[in-house]
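Input chain follows. Return structure tokens only.
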Amino acid sequence: MFIRAPEAHSRSFIKAVSWRILGSMDTFVISYFVTGKLAFAASIASVETFTKIVLFYGHERVWAAVPWGRADQAPQVTATAVAEPAAVQTA
């Protein structure tokens, strides 16, 4: 069920929760401006908090498994022995 990634599940979960708190505050403010009612704004923000934590967590785990664009997945340059040039023969 879980995707293996170099990031701990707890890190992905905490990132999801912290991001969602910020996002829910934004949703609450926008909902209040649109509806003009604190109760509606609070209910909208509370419901979307839980659904979006789950969605973000899944999204984060998938991206954690993708090596593209990660600094820790940059191609490694290895040193190789350089062959000596062949001796030039003079006649």
